[in-house]
Task: structure prediction
Amino acid sequence: MNLAQFKQVSEVEWKIAPFGKMRVPAVIFADQALIRDMDDKVFEQLTNVATLPGIVQAAYAMPDAHWGYGFPIGGVAAFDADAGGVVSAGGVGFDISCGVRTLHTGLRADEVAPLKQRLADRLFARIPAGVGSTGPLRLNANEMDAMLRGGARWAVEHGYGSAADLDRIEEHGYMAGAEPDQVSDQAKRRQRDEIGTLGSGNHYLELQEIVEIHDTKAADRFRLRVGEVVVSIHCGSRGLGHQIGTEFLKQMVIAAPGYGIELPDRELACAPINSSLGQAYLGAMRAAINCALANRQVITHLTRQVFADLLPGTHLTLIYDVSHNTCKLESHTVDGQSRRLYVHRKGATRAFGPGYPALPNELRDIGQPVLIGGSMGTASYILVGTETGMTRAFSSACHGAGRAMSRHQATRQWHGRTLMDELAGQGVLIRSPSLRGVAEEAPGAYKDVGAVVEAADRAGLACKVARLKPLVCIKG
Result:
């Protein structure tokens, strides 16, 4: 990317002044190396987002930003409904409420090592992964609607986990305002037997060892100790979320002229928040959020069963669960005034700082855990939301490393079987139904997650707490 297009605000913040039809500036948080390596589409898409009606303060991009559908992945934008603000299906993405949850195992890596192979095989056998994978549940129409209203609460009520889990899940386990009636029959059919499945692409379940602590106070509060093993689950709303995104994007493209909205890109299709179409999308999107929360809750239950079978007495407790493809109504301070805004985060993680009322009581004074995923052979990170971050980009941080090349490019450079063997030699066991999928998700196809996290930390978006290395990866 050409740095001459930006005004450098700091070592890790770059600003694009409004031009053309932009209503607000655009801001990218990244160091010089990361921003140089970003494709020019990030500049184009971010400045397009800044033209949308009712946008507030700025259009933001996180250090892992890369080209996406309409909005850049790693994009953040907030809209005021009372000022004609819009909701955009492209600003949420197709994998609605894709997110990460991380669990304590209470075990040290040396305790897990003798059973590592068996854990990998058993987890792979128990937790369905890959394109078209189906899970242990098959929901009828009434059960589907109940799940879409209840999220992880519904899962707990049906024996998948405990009520103690809910306090450590974003929205305390379920998203209010879900409207299953706004979800099409086709979307529901796609999801009927996909609850409890990882899916494909960059989704995974990983056993990870805590190898470094950066913030001892937050690590103590999160109960993170060097040498111990955690489990991280990364997945979303599967076929249901994708279908909702596809259907509403088409409707929004057709409806935009009638709302007087001039789209700089069809992929930025949107509707006024207060319109019937905007409200219908929000109801369906919230149902998809609940689908994702239920999905991760069921996978957690299956994971606990595997650990109980192989390591009796082990109790996996939830550190936190947070999504990174959502639009949520939140209170934020803008120009000294508190405003209720619809914050789109697409490939960006909510990162509330200390004192935010929605946080669990035991975490409210320290801040929200921010879970950053790696890619098979690379590190993952746990960060914590900060007071500074609350004012930077509507309490948002990065969500992962961000792709450096397309999946097609990756398959030309790597072969799945060879990559699995190389990672096994490094102590990382990969289990996947698709060798092509492994090649598509090669660690080298992604940016340096350490550099991304360092930029987020230096920008004040969130503070580094711990670095994790993979031991076992179940890959979709």
About this structure: The chain has a mean pLDDT of 96. Residues 276-310 form the longest helix (35 residues).
